[in-house]
Amino acid sequence: MIILNFSHPLSAEQQVQIEAAAGEAIERIVRVETHFDDQAPFGPQVVALFAAIDLAPEDWQRGDLLVILPSLSAIAALVLAEVHGRAGGFPPVVRLRPVAGSAFDRYEFAEILNLQEVRRGVRKERY
Q1: What is the residue extent of each domain of the chain?
Q2: What pLDDT sits at residue 127?
Q3: For 68, 80, 112, 119, which has the most beta carbons within 10 A of its beta carbon?
Q4: Which residue in 58, 61, 66, 70 sits closest to 23, CA to CA?
Q5: pTM (2 decimals)?
Q6: DSSP letters for the chain
C-alpha cells in the first residue's frame, strides 16, 4: 500500500501497527509537508500541495492508498476532496491518538477509518 502522510513522520512501531491493521505491507510512504499561509485562500494552496505530490494517475486509483490527514480540519477537508477526485472515492484514513500517561507529546496508532464504507452505509439510509 501507499501511505500519503500529511502529518508527522511515522515511527517504525506505527508502521508495523498500520501494516498489521491493514493486512498489507507498506510499499511507499509519501510525506507531504503541509504548511499553509493562514492569510491566503486555502484552495490554491491545496492545489499547489497536490501538484507537488509524486504519484502517477494509476497510483491514485490502485485502491490501496491510505491517508494520514493534517490536523487542521479545513485543510483535512480539502485534502479529502482532492484525494476523492483523484482516486474516485474516499480513502481509508489512519487515526493516531496521544499515548495515555506519556510525559511527552507522543502518538500511537489507533485505527484505520474506512470512509468509503461509512459513505456506503449512509447512502442506504437516504430517502
Answers
A1: 2-124
A2: 62
A3: 68
A4: 66
A5: 0.90
A6: -EEEE-SSPPPHHHHHHHHHHHTS---EEEE------TTS-HHHHHHHHHHT----HHHHTSS-EEEE--SSHHHHHHHHHHHHHHHSSPPEEEEEEEPTT-SS--EEEEEEEEHHHHHHHHHHT--
